[in-house]
Automatic annotation (TrEMBL):
<keyword id="KW-0411">Iron-sulfur</keyword>
<feature type="domain" description="Aminotransferase class V">
    <location>
        <begin position="6"/>
        <end position="369"/>
    </location>
</feature>
<keyword id="KW-0408">Iron</keyword>
<dbReference type="InterPro" id="IPR016454">
    <property type="entry name" value="Cysteine_dSase"/>
</dbReference>
<dbReference type="InterPro" id="IPR015422">
    <property type="entry name" value="PyrdxlP-dep_Trfase_small"/>
</dbReference>
<dbReference type="InterPro" id="IPR015424">
    <property type="entry name" value="PyrdxlP-dep_Trfase"/>
</dbReference>
<keyword id="KW-0808">Transferase</keyword>
<keyword id="KW-0479">Metal-binding</keyword>
<comment type="similarity">
    <text>Belongs to the class-V pyridoxal-phosphate-dependent aminotransferase family. NifS/IscS subfamily.</text>
</comment>
<dbReference type="InterPro" id="IPR015421">
    <property type="entry name" value="PyrdxlP-dep_Trfase_major"/>
</dbReference>
<dbReference type="Pfam" id="PF00266">
    <property type="entry name" value="Aminotran_5"/>
</dbReference>
<protein>
    <submittedName>
        <fullName>Cysteine desulfurase family protein</fullName>
    </submittedName>
</protein>
<dbReference type="InterPro" id="IPR000192">
    <property type="entry name" value="Aminotrans_V_dom"/>
</dbReference>
<keyword id="KW-0663">Pyridoxal phosphate</keyword>
């Protein structure tokens, strides 16, 4: 708990670990040279970048040379999807994704659809899971890419990537995984699931904003073409001088994540379950996502008998204020209820009256207990007001 209240929006972005800040400050002071320059300061900068790749690659069972630095997972998603499309520019085909994917996946696919690509958006069940058999049935001879996220950013639902990868084993389509919410927190092995492209983030893992990476398998390499031009950096896929301080910060972020996991995931999961038990006691709440396959740090609840705007305002403006969200931070300005929850069959009004509570490294038991008490009090008060108005 801080002067600003209790922070429970780690799925949107996490507070940067002080040890990461130290590394970034040191990098700004030490590495002013361009890492492509042919002199000693340049070579030192290049060596620092090479070292930063190692813990990031290790988090997903990849080789350091497999990584392409980006400005974040959203750019990595776009590079993966648009890059595959660019490789097949003369023969547009078919792509598959889920209707509950992040906007950074659904957006570029919608843009490709307008250009003549066929896009299949598979449904999910009431718990948010995709049927791998339905995905296998949707494959076509001209399917170029299948994109499925590891952990849903609103509900925390984890898809069965191993089964999905097995369905693609004998198909030439590339498998892209948006792992922004899961990498560094949950196990992920690119070889075990047969992933060709994986998007990674730093700021979901107590690292800096503005940096991410795309895993691009080298052997066998997916059909992927550059979508930006003008430099040879990052295997020719992402031109521009690397932001050394941010990349070194991402490297330290994943180094710390490896040191904490799995103990950190277990602690956060226990706190999440403790929070749910406190909230469930108020009654008429729906927990979104099958609890056995939801990432430890995420709890999505839909609250019956309250007005959506009143609930969110009470939580964020009350005392103490709670930093919580209704769903995806990328859709925070939308007046519509969550498309993810509607896809899971939630009534639009119930989907709107939802809270996404996401925990992180700096969430304490006291934070959880206070938040549980405060949210419960808000729900009871708002329901009482609604009943009084109805009389």
């Amino acid at each position: 708990m801080s002067r600003a209240g209790i922070y429970l929006d780690n799925a949107a972005s996490t507070p940067v670990d002080p040890r990461v800040i130290e590394v970034m400050a040191d990098a700004l002071a030490r590495h002013g040279a361009n890492p492509t320059a042919a002199h000693e300061p340049g070579r030192q900068a290049a060596e620092a970048l090479a070292q930063a790749r190692e813990p990031v690659a290790a988090a997903i069972g990849a080789q350091p040379a497999d990584l392409v630095w980006t400005s974040g997972a959203s750019e990595a998603n776009n590079l993966a999807i648009q890059g595959v499309a660019a490789a097949f520019a003369r023969q547009p085909g078919h792509m598959i994704t889920l209707c509950t994917e992040h906007p950074a996946v659904l957006g570029p696919m919608a843009a490709l659809e307008a250009q003549g690509w066929a896009i299949t958006r598979l449904p999910v069940d009431a718990d948010g899971f995709c049927d791998p058999a339905a995905l296998a049935a949707a494959l076509r001879p001209d399917t170029r890419l299948v994109s499925v996220m590891q952990v849903n950013n609103e509900t925390g639902v984890c898809q069965d990537l191993a089964v999905i990868g097995e369905a693609l084993r004998d198909h030439p389509a590339a498998l892209h995984v948006d792992a922004a919410q899961g990498a560094g927190k949950l196990p992920l092995d690119v070889d075990a699931i047969g992933a060709d492209l994986v998007s990674l983030s730093a700021h979901k893992l107590h690292g800096p904003k503005g940096v991410g990476a795309l895993f691009v398998r080298r052997r066998p390499a997916p059909h992927l073409a550059a979508v930006w031009h003008g430099g040879g950096q990052e295997r020719g896929l992402r031109p521009g001088t690397p932001a050394i301080h941010q990349i070194l910060g991402m490297g330290k972020t994943y180094e710390l994540a490896a040191a904490y996991a799995p103990a950190e995931s277990r602690r956060i999961g226990e706190l999440r379950d403790r929070l749910w038990q406190q909230l469930a006691a108020v009654g008429d709440l729906v927990r979104n996502g099958g609890p056995d396959r939801v990432a430890p740090g995420l709890l999505s609840v839909s609250v019956g008998g309250v007005h959506a705007d009143a609930l969110h305002y009470a939580c964020t403006a009350g005392e103490p204020p709670l930093a919580v969200s209704r769903g995806s931070a990328c859709a925070a300005g939308s007046a519509e209820s969550s498309y993810v929850l509607r896809a899971m069959g939630r009534d639009p009004a119930l989907a709107a009256a939802s809270l996404r509570l996401s925990l992180g490294r700096f969430t304490s038991g006291a934070d959880v207990d206070t938040a549980g008490r405060v949210i419960t009090a808000h729900i009871e008060r708002l329901r009482a007001l609604a009943d009084a108005v109805a009389v």
